[in-house]
Amino acid sequence: MTRFLRATHGLTLPGLICAVLCSTALWTTASAQGPTLAQDGIYTSEQAVRGQALYKQRCASCHGNALQGAVAPALTGAAFVAYWGGPLSDLADKIRYTMPADGAGTLTPQQSVDLVAHLLQVGKFPAGKTELAADEAALKGIALSTSRASAVNAKVALGPAQAPVFPAYGNLAAVMRAIMFPSSNMIFHVQTNDPGAPPPAKEPGAKSDAGFSWVDWGAGIYTGWDLVDYAAIAIAESAPLMLTPGRRCENGKMVPVDRPDWIKYSLEMAEAGRAAYRASQTRNQELVSESTNQLSDSCLNCHRAFRDIPGGKAARCVAQKP
Predict the structure, then answer these.
(1) Of 205, 160, 153, whose CA–CA distance to 26 is shortest?
(2) Could you give the CA distance from residue 294 to residue 84 in angstroms, rounded to a whole number?
(3) Mind listing the pLDDT tens digit for each residue in 90-114?
(4) Which element (helix H / strand E) includes 263?
């Protein structure tokens, strides 16, 4: 609770400067040899056959009979491997807790890894002699690619050769208040409120609460867990906005987008958003609550260097010497 109060208090002050940038930090395990790779034969052909049958029943209507994508994204190809290039537990958790869309949470752990085996086989990853186990720790030690950096770089390479460039419109404080502040507080809110709990029933004829709640803005449209997912994504995806050349701080000074320490703290914030998203995908309140420590720390690190310095409002965006 102390972290919650500290983080929430910091987020409500003007000039929130927790920038984000897509991290290229390597994903590794505690093993000196690095993670096991999907191409090392981590599932069996028999397991993939079970997964194929289950896929036809529960997944093909949205993702296509050949995993090519339909109303939902493709589950094979370079883009898929790039996106899920980190620990295989991310993919297994996504399937187990959020799929299928019309029956989230109905798949067993074994069914989830059987589906992963089918995806791997279609993706030309070789089968082995041992089944892929539905064990969280083991799945965390397996990767589709050797690093998160390679996954990020692959995603960038898959993008258009040229894209329009938009000049900064709002100052840094306005952008942070519009995106980072409400999104972060929606994640911090999970510390004391279960997103999976049904909303409290209102008395017949009762008037709506006065004012507007960022936490409840999507109530009745999205589930509580969906809102946490979207908040985490908003944090991770806001990096380009924080690092747009020419953007100014609230005091009129230029945002120091080329400073190594600014970029470092931005990397930390981006990973905090992704960590919150991975935790939210498990639909586990405790894991999301734990992820808020990383989110809180990433904010605090940046605040200490770029906001909480002598001089008050006029000093914001003027960093101390590294």
Answers:
(1) 153
(2) 21
(3) 999 999 999 998 899 999 999 999 9
(4) helix 260-281
- Output the CA torsion sign for 218, 184, 289, 279: positive
Average per-residue pLDDT for the chain: 80
Where on the phi/psi map is residue 44: left (φ > 0), alpha (ψ -120 to 50), or beta? beta
Q: How many residues does the chain have?
A: 322
- In sequence order, the 6+-apart residues with CB closer than 8 A to the CB of 238 are 20, 175, 179, 180
* Angle of the 88-98 helix axis to the 260-281 helix axis, nearest 10: 40
At 209, the amino acid letter reads D
Phi first, then psi: what are they for 9, rounded to 5°?
-60, -45
Q: Which domains does the chain have, with CATH numbers?
A: 2-26+167-197+214-315 (no CATH), 36-146 (1.10.760.10)
pLDDT of residue 191: 96
**For the residues of 180-217, what is the DSSP string, one character each?**
IHHHHHHHHGGGTS-TTSPPPPPPTTPPPPSS--STTT
User: Which amino acid is residue 164, in one-letter code?
Assistant: P
Please choose, from the candidates 223, 199, 220, the residue with its C-alpha nearest in 3D space to the C-alpha of residue 283. Answer: 223
User: Among candidates 160, 130, 119, 112, which has minimal Cα distance to 36?
Assistant: 130
Low-confidence ranges of the chain (pLDDT < 70): 1-34, 146-163, 200-212, 214, 308-322
pLDDT in tens, 237-261: 998 788 888 888 877 788 889 999 8
